[in-house]
Design a protein that fits this description.
single chain; alpha+beta; 7 helices
């Protein structure tokens, strides 16, 4: 059996992997599961990832979890275009820097915004907690200002002069948050963070 990707495309890290595989012509079988239905906790999935989380990868007998690890594995195995994960020491370090930083600085607070604005009201039937949403946005805002005013002020993309895995991860995280907050898709993301290749990636996200 060939490469299998276990994804819930409602999850930003899963969408990042899906976009990357599609964009680079990587052949794979999509094993789509829904987190909301608890499909990631079924015995057959736990044989792929005992932690019960998506994304996950199965490549023959090899199993792998965690979105960044999967993206790096795919980029190396399929020798994708160098701009995704550049070979230069310092350029690659910049991509690594963002990928290490974004988990707590972007992914966690952006997920909390999405939960507060969209998922919790949907499942509970209760209105959005405006005060809590404002607090969550305030936790996310400093990281977005840093990206917009310091990082993107000095170069066209988040890590290098070309689109990289850093931009892909940012795109999928901030796209979801922007959608939840009703920010038009042809406008910059919250606090002005703009991923330059958004229209092209939109084809693969269904957003």
């Amino acid at each position: 059996m060939g490469l299998e990707l276990f994804l819930d495309l409602r999850s930003p890290p899963c969408r990042a992997i899906y976009i990357f595989a599609k964009k680079n012509g990587i052949p794979f079988e999509l094993r789509q599961g829904e987190l909301a239905r608890g499909e990631h906790l079924r015995p057959e999935f736990l044989q792929v990832n005992r932690l019960g989380k998506v994304p996950a990868l199965r490549d023959g007998d090899f199993l792998l979890a965690e979105s960044v690890a999967i993206l790096l594995y795919l980029s190396r195995k399929y020798q994708t275009a160098e701009h995704w994960y550049p070979p230069g020491l310092q350029a690659r370090a910049r991509v690594d820097e963002y990928l290490a930083w974004q988990h707590v600085a972007i992914q966690l607070p952006a997920t909390n915004v999405y939960l507060c604005k969209s998922l919790l009201p949907y499942f509970s039937g209760q209105p959005v907690d405006g005060a809590n949403l404002q607090r969550l946005m305030e936790r996310l805002a400093p990281a977005l200002r840093h990206l917009d005013e310091e990082v993107l002020a000095s170069r066209p993309f988040l890590a290098t002069e070309q689109v990289s895995l850093a931009d892909l991860m940012a795109l999928t995280e901030l796209m979801q948050e922007s959608s939840a907050l009703g920010i038009p898709t042809d406008e910059p993301f919250s606090c002005g963070v703009a991923v330059r290749w958004y229209p092209e990636a939109q084809e693969y996200t269904g957003e």
